[in-house]
Design a protein that fits this description.
The protein has 115 residues and is mainly alpha-helical. Helix content is 72%, strand content 0%. The protein is globular and about 50 Å long.
């Protein structure tokens, strides 16, 4: 049987997924900016793994402990702002600001479609 096309997946969903991936990349880069050499990469990887754990536990669609909106959206906004602050601390101020604005906008746009 051929794979089924996901239902109700639109451009905001794609942008939200890209923002999730960008969060991981930005955290690794921010960690590297906060400390040099292997310690920076290790710090960035640690920050990324913490974010992945939080996301998988309380925001992922397949999680048993998924938060309901509006609580989930509030936690997502707090995560995006935190990532932006880490990016600023790592010397990526404008990347952090852009990430926070785009991510919050993307997830706010999908909040009606995602109960």
């Amino acid at each position: 049987m051929p794979p089924q096309k996901p239902q109700d997946v639109g451009p905001w969903d794609l942008l939200a997924f890209v923002c999730e991936l960008a969060m991981i990349v930005l955290l690794v880069a921010a960690g590297h900016g906060m400390a040099g050499g292997w310690k920076g990469w290790a710090l960035g990887a640690f920050l990324a793994f913490v974010a992945i754990g939080i996301w998988a536990q309380w925001m992922a669609p397949t999680s048993d402990k998924r938060l309901v909106n509006p609580t989930r959206f509030i936690v997502q906004v707090m995560m995006f702002v935190t990532v932006a602050l880490y990016a600023a601390a790592g010397g990526l101020v404008w990347w952090g600001i852009a990430f926070a604005i785009v991510s919050i906008t993307a997830f706010a746009a999908r909040i009606r479609a995602d109960p």
